[in-house]
Amino acid sequence: MTDDQWEIFKRQIGQCVPIGKIQFEPLSDKQQEELLEIMQEHQNNTYNVKIIKRLSEYELLDKFYELLTEYLSTGYETHVKTFYLPDGDKIYLKENSAFISQGTTGLCTWSASLYLLEYLLTIDVSGKDILELGSGAGLLGIALARKNNVLLTDVSPLVIERLNENIAMNNSIAKANYLDWENPDSINSKPDITLCADVIFNPCLIRPLFETIKRFSNVCYISSTKRNQETFDVFFSLVKSENIQFEIIDFKSEWFYLPERDIVLLRLDLQN
Ligand SMILES: C[S@@+](CC[C@H](N)C(=O)[O-])C[C@H]1O[C@@H](n2cnc3c(N)ncnc32)[C@H](O)[C@@H]1O
């Protein structure tokens, strides 16, 4: 590709002009290296896959094929979802297309967090200090940060990076921090409310999660999709064994579409 063609090509790729409108020619190694940088900057993975497929009729550096394999094998495709809230607001979230990708479940929104959010909006929580455990993509915390002081936490550095992106995309004042239930010393907090959505899934993590909830919470809301009754019962028996006051909240969700519907909602009272 001549230098003049390359200047136009580069601008068009940077702006994500539809692939069919762009004139493709073989690229020099230097141009290919620069193209890789542009593709990584805009992170539009669906578009990047199309570029690589279109360029594959020419000789390409191996790095393009490595990137293509990564996109296709890890469910690394991302999109931005718009969640319309019952009060007329919207929350935008960048999510991965696959439920499990890049080694974590935290890059998409699970039904339990939609359910808990809808419930909390009906009781109109405001002016509180809120801590969320295992925040994932961040819907719950970001929505509540419109009226509360919210700290979202997660163990995965990738998830925390995504949380910060999503917080910025919504001009939110929420904060995101690293917190591992197995070693929860990274924060020091005694919020009014602790939130947990879809975090009861791994039997080995139930005790550390429970201890983390006890350490930080006054009141804790936990919404959990019941995929495995036994796993949930282990958590529930810990609550009962320590005589923690609890309430099972009977709530019918009507606003959000919930792909998973068997969700239980608990409120724990740990003030005493
Ligand atoms: C199923 S996702 C739920 C995400 C979000 N709450 C939702 O409902 O959409 C579970 C989340 O727990 C986080 N997690 C898993 N193990 C953890 C640990 N040891 N400490 C803190 N977070 C953890 C994961 O990174 C993931 O974001």
Automatic annotation (TrEMBL):
Gene Ontology CC terms: protein-containing complex
Pfam families given in the database record: Methyltransf_16 (PF10294)
Tree of life domain: Eukaryota
Transmembrane segments: none
InterPro entries found in the cross-reference section: Methyltransf_16, SAM-dependent_MTases_sf
Protein name: Uncharacterized protein
Lineage start: Eukaryota, Fungi, Fungi incertae sedis, Chytridiomycota, Chytridiomycota incertae sedis
